[in-house]
């Protein structure tokens, strides 16, 4: 019986030993897609917020009967930025799988 205990102890510390590092890597791999998805959602929310503010600015400038030079420049910049943000939504997204 003593021989079986010694053999069991020797095998458990040599052959059947598992490294402790393998358990720590799996949660990180699982969290990476979640973090990137949350980041993408936050970016989309910020872009939508900017687009709504730009739309309000564009509507107020375009409702004027006469635009000044500064109004024209502001309208042009707002339209360009709105176009840039809308391209972000129009571009196809790669599959996450």
Q: Give the mean pLDDT.
A: 81
User: What's the helical proportion of residues?
Assistant: over 70%
Let me know the number of strands.
Answer: 0
Q: What is the radius of gyration computed over CA atoms, rounded to a whole number of angstroms?
A: 30 Å
Overall 3D form: rod-shaped
Question: What can you tell me about this protein's structure?
Answer:
- 77% of the residues lie in helices and 0% in strands.
- The protein contains three helices and no strands.
- It has helices at residues 2-13, 22-62, 69-90.
- The model has no long low-confidence stretch (mean pLDDT 81).
Question: What does the secondary structure layout of this molecule look like, with pairings?
Answer:
Layout: H1 2-13, H2 22-62, H3 69-90
Helix pairs in contact: 2-3
């Amino acid at each position: 019986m003593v021989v079986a205990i010694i053999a069991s102890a020797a095998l458990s510390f040599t052959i059947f030993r598992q490294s402790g590092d393998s358990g720590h890597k799996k949660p990180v791999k699982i969290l990476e897609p979640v973090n990137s998805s949350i980041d993408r959602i936050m970016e989309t929310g910020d872009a939508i917020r900017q687009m709504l503010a730009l739309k309000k600015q564009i509507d107020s400038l375009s409702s004027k009967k006469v635009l000044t030079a500064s109004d024209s420049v502001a309208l042009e910049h707002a339209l360009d930025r709105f176009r840039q943000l809308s391209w972000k939504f129009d571009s196809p997204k790669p599959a996450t799988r």
